[in-house]
Specification:
Mean pLDDT: 89
Largest sheet: 4 strands, mixed
Strand content: 15-25%
Shape: globular
Number of strands: 4
Distance between the termini: 6 Å
Low-confidence stretches: none
Structural class: alpha/beta
CATH architecture: Roll
Helix content: 40-55%
Strand order of the largest sheet: 3-2-1-4
Number of domains: 1
CATH topology: Diaminopimelate Epimerase, Chain A, domain 1
Order of helices and strands: HEHEEHHHE
CATH class: Alpha Beta
Length: about 140
């Protein structure tokens, strides 16, 4: 099962990175983990983006990190609000950084680093507001 890929400590490391990244922004970050990805990785990430209702944030500034660990597939998907603000190659550069960690077997570290980097861009374009509410769960979601 996908849930078994990370140890409890690694799951906590990822959730802690989400919480830290979201402290300084109104943006929302989620991580979804599948064991396999039976289709195009961006299509699958888009499916989970909608299923997790990430498109329903007030400022359309959600970011999904999608990983299918057995198939070695990764996607980072930002909503329209954040995509209008970041450079065209931003998500690919985040993925490249993460893949470097993944190649060393450091999957939790790679995800955490990618989340923190995304948080920096979210902070720049969507700073924390005093009335900000956490619109989406910080927990990792798991598929098959």
């Amino acid at each position: 099962m996908a849930k078994d890929f990370f140890s409890e400590g690694e799951r906590q490391q990822i959730v802690d990175a989400i919480k830290a990244a979201e402290l300084n922004t109104s943006g929302e970050i989620r991580v979804h983990l599948d064991k396999t990805c039976p289709e195009d990785v961006l299509d699958r990430a888009a499916y989970w983006f909608e299923k997790l209702q990430m498109h329903k944030t007030e400022q359309r500034n959600g970011v999904l990190f999608y990983l299918a660990h057995e198939d070695h597939k990764l996607a980072v998907l930002g909503d329209v609000g954040i995509n209008q603000k970041v450079p065209d190659d931003f998500w690919n550069s985040i993925k490249d950084q993460m893949i470097a960690d993944f190649k060393e077997g450091e999957y939790a570290k790679g995800l955490a680093n990618g989340i923190i980097e995304s948080g920096k861009q979210l902070k720049a374009h969507f700073p924390y507001q005093s009335d900000d509410v956490n619109e989406l769960s910080d927990d990792i979601s798991f598929g098959s």
